[in-house]
Design a protein that fits this description.
homodimer, alpha/beta, Nucleotidyltransferase, domain 5, 3 domains, 10 helices, 37% helix
């Protein structure tokens, strides 16, 4: 696995470049070096030449295509009583998707069985990205996950990588979801009220921020009054009550004065468009309206899977040897 | 001004490299190219060869020295009734420093007169970094600065650059101060209670975060209760009263759950070490102690000038033509 392979894959799959002149520019190498690199990847069946088009005047540059359909990835997230997955190719196209309900509380074994079946059925899967609703450190160890007692404290990423012989990324749910909505020149916050307390994902300039203790976005701890935190108020107030709106306003204002993001997303199932308008009005009573982040609805399930898919493709780009893993 | 000049200056002044093999590595060029670059900068009197040391066995690599003492910069900050400045060389060594009190409220004219005098006396000054206690956008326009009505709304950076024919950076006070304490693998928040309301500077992974509307760190807007914000409570409570400690706890907790920084700095004049210990205790009652940022005292005046000096040196590295500006 050389750096040039990663850079070339990135040029095709992320930047959508398709000629040697364009690719040698981002690889920062000479034309012959870029050309040799492309030839190697053609031999490894990662790339193919596309037919020349007829153009007026001059010979067009040869164009190439990444054979994304040959390499698949798996994005899967685990909730308390169901999981949802998407098999995709490394170009981001959908191969298969499904939701499975289960009634076991042994999430480790549910995960292991499901992955075994999916990988048997789809040996073309190169990389896996697994989402969990818990605090996860950068090595994919579950630091805190009350929803899945069987996984709590386990180095899940390392266990699954060894077990399945493929690169696996384990990521927190909100960090995955915010990745799907993040962009290089934006600060984005993604909020999910969830069933077991609210959480948030943060991305500054396109990069997910985890915080010093992987505690960035643990918004249930935002102070509400001298006794209660926002998490306690949300747990004891009914949706759309005054306390509920006040608790959400506190979350918005806390982000507005600290990170001052461009956008705060709420999931459509948590807050309606009308609710967002009420929250904007409420916040604008104590904060300059023109400095408030834009409040928007997000499609949490789609963003969650999109974010995981991005991780799985990135892991392919960076970690899979030339020609892909073969089974 | 080529990119290679900037990179070479950076290699000497920031990374403290001093041999061609080390420098060609960070420049990512061949030995002859690096060597030619060094020769050019020797001719321009930016670099000189240092005497060879006698070593046992083998010929030592030639060593070079950046002639930092030849190029000066000015870091200056403006408060309501005084200004403080530091003239430094581009190696960060102190040349002169002073504090000047004034009783004019025309800060534009105070600034202009002071700079004229300082630049007349020190024609070796290449670049200027000016700090102000107000919201400043990335072009150095003052967006909001109630302390200096005469500067409010003015494109100060552009005005001073044109007036003095040298690169000028205008920066917010807390963004300058946090820069001095920021590091690549840390998230740092710097808090100053100030005389006209509190402010904070944020740096994530060594980069200053300004927010979508240059409003990141406007902590007076943190909600305190349904009626009051933290800024109002701080303005009406006496230091070390219960409300005052509660307001500071709210600031700490708001950052802890959003950015979850490694460190929060308070200026020594605002909070004593004993006060920081009380704040930690207070916050730990409603937030996991092991996830709390470390609270530390900072020397605000020094950090402020250090941060401005960094900006002035960076501006020299990136913007000043080979050989420096001559008057």
């Amino acid at each position: 696995m050389t750096e040039l392979i990663s850079l070339t894959r990135h040029a095709f799959l992320v930047d959508h470049l398709d000629t040697i002149p364009a690719i040698r520019h981002v690889l920062d190498v000479s034309f012959p070096t870029a050309s040799k690199q492309i030839d190697q990847m053609i031999a490894a069946q990662e790339i193919e030449e596309t037919p020349l088009e007829l153009v007026r005047g001059g010979r067009p540059a040869k164009r190439y295509r990444y054979r994304a359909d040959r390499f698949h990835g798996l994005a899967l997230y685990l909730e308390r009583t169901y999981l949802q997955y998407r098999i995709h190719d490394v170009g981001g196209h959908l191969i298969a998707t499904d939701r499975l309900n289960f009634d076991s509380s042994d999430h480790g074994s549910v995960l292991s069985k499901t992955l075994t079946t999916l990988l048997d059925d789809h040996p073309s899967i190169q990389t896996l990205a697994i989402g969990v609703a818990g605090a996860v450190d950068t090595t994919g160890t579950i630091l805190f996950a009350p929803d899945y007692p069987a996984l709590d404290g386990r180095p899940l990423q390392q266990e699954l990588t060894e077990r399945f012989g493929r690169p696996v990324i384990v990521e927190n749910d909100m960090n995955a979801a915010v990745r799907a909505q993040a962009s290089d020149n934006n600060t984005t916050v993604y909020i999910y009220l969830g069933t077991n307390g609210p959480g948030a994902g943060l991305a500054v300039s396109g990069r997910v921020v985890r915080g010093a203790h992987h505690f960035a976005g643990e918004i249930s701890f935002i102070p509400f009054d001298e006794k209660r935190n926002v998490g306690q108020v949300l747990a004891t107030s009914s949706p759309h009550s005054d306390d509920w709106y006040e608790a959400l306003s506190r979350i918005i204002l806390s982000f507005s004065v600290t990170l001052n993001p461009d956008v705060i997303l709420f999931t459509a199932s948590d807050v309606s468009d009308d609710g967002l308008a009420r929250l904007t009005d409420r916040c604008a009573k104590r904060f300059p309206l023109d400095k408030l982040p834009r409040l928007r609805q997000g499609d949490w399930e789609t963003d969650y899977l999109d974010g995981l898919m991005q991780l799985s493709i990135q892991s392919f780009i960076e970690q899979i040897p030339l020609g892909g893993l073969t089974r």
